[in-house]
Amino acid sequence: MDDLVRRDDRGAVPTPAHPTRSRAGRPSSLDERVRDDITALDGMDLGNLRALWTKLYRTAAPKGFRRELLLRACAYQIQVKAYGGLSPKTHRKLLKIAVQAERGTFTTAGAPRRLRPGTRLVREYAGNTHVVEVLADGFAHDRKKYRSLSAIAKVISGTNWSGNSFFGLKRPTKAAQAGKQEGSDE
């Protein structure tokens, strides 16, 4: 446990893009070492976790961090040192979100909604209840597979619809939200 951040023969930290596997498909020794290092964290007391934090992050651990958060952050950093961290694009996006959150201007309104496979969408139309199941590669309705919600909305209604609007997934516009707020004040 003395050397949680292992280095190769040249003193560099190995950083493959993803966990490596042996030819037999078993985890590589790097994977096993990372797993062992993370497992060992559970037996460390708060003082040792703080010391490890300092070693991994090259700065003192924040005083208010509890053991569980220190443990998770150290486990994450062990993996970063072994396999590499976030892409620069993702890092920039997260920094932008953090700045917006600090200013109080961050909103998820512009973020796309992602429907997970297995989700069921229910819509009543013309007195009939229609159930659509989200699949990994499309949607299912009445035992048929469709590529889009719009196609299903057209089958149900007989007219062209935005699938997100038809199934109530479209976020309200700023004007609609303002109208609701004005109406609630009366």
What does this structure look like?
Helix content is 45%, strand content 11%. About 10% of the residues have low confidence. The chain has a 4-stranded antiparallel β-sheet with strand order 1-2-3-4, covered by helices on one side. The longest helix is centred in the middle third of the chain and has 17 residues. The protein has 7 helices and 4 strands. Helix 1 packs antiparallel against helix 3. It folds into 2 domains: 87 residues, no CATH class; 59 residues. The chain is of the alpha+beta class and 186 residues long.
What's the helix and strand layout?
Layout: H1 29-41, H2 46-57, H3 67-83, H4 88-103, E1 120-125, E2 128-135, E3 138-141, E4 144-146, H5 149-157, H6 163-166, H7 174-185
Antiparallel strand pairs: 1-2, 2-3, 3-4
Helix pairs in contact: 1-3, 2-3
Q: Which bin fits the share of residues in helices?
A: 40-55%
Number of domains: 2
Uncertain stretches of 5 or more adjacent residues: 5-22
For the termini, the CA-CA separation is 65 Å
Which sequence of strands runs across the widest sheet?
Answer: 1-2-3-4
Instruction: Tell me the major beta sheet.
Output: 4 strands, antiparallel
The succession of helices and strands, N to C, reads HHHHEEEEHHH
By oligomeric state, this entry counts as single chain
**Which shape, going by the Cα principal axes?**
elongated
Over the alpha carbons, how many angstroms does the gyration radius reach?
Answer: 25 Å
Share in β-strands: 5-15%
> How many individual β-strands?
4
Q: Structural class of the secondary elements?
A: alpha+beta
Which whole number gives the mean pLDDT? 82
**Tally of helical runs:** 7
